[in-house]
Design a protein that fits this description.
By secondary structure, this protein is mainly beta. About 10% of the residues lie in helices and about 30% in strands. The radius of gyration is 26 Å and the shape is elongated.
């Protein structure tokens, strides 16, 4: 069975990467852990903040691959501690964010249990390109090459 999407329209040539990004986004919906904020910090800057209390810098990994920002956290339970009550989760997580073209990562910092990832939007200069229109050769015309031979 063939799946039809909005991007199957002939008016959306070259937008297949958007469809792949949407598929990745659906798969990475996750369970909401860890909680996060996305805030605009300037005209062309954003900040993603994840609450990662209990994770050290060595436990965290931030990676950008094909416009997908992925944050992973992995804690290893040492097994020597005996908990009478365990309310602070020590679990792995993976959180993915699909970034638009032109978004770059400036920095990632860990501060008081909050992982801040600063992003900025690169605004490209507008480029107008004029396309020359050529007259097509008529099917009945024979083309003559430079040396005078008929093709």
């Amino acid at each position: 069975m063939t799946r039809l999407t909005l991007f199957d329209s002939p008016l959306f040539l070259g937008f297949e990467h958007f469809e792949r990004s949407l598929d990745r986004l659906k798969k990475s919906g996750g369970d909401g852990y860890p909680p996060y904020n996305i805030e605009q910090t300037g005209d062309f800057s954003l900040r993603i903040t994840l609450a990662v209390a209990g994770f050290s810098m060595e436990d965290l990994d931030v990676e950008l691959d094909n416009n997908t920002l992925t944050v992973r956290g992995k804690q290893i339970d040492d097994g020597t501690r005996i908990f009478l009550h365990r309310g602070i989760a020590a679990r792995q997580f993976q959180k993915s964010f699909v970034l638009a073209d032109g978004i770059e990562i400036d920095d990632a910092t860990l501060d008081n249990g909050l992982l801040h990832i600063d992003l900025r939007r690169i605004v490209p200069e507008s480029q107008v390109q004029k396309i020359a229109i050529k007259k097509a050769a008529k099917p009945t015309e024979k083309l003559i090459d430079v040396e005078g031979r008929h093709e």
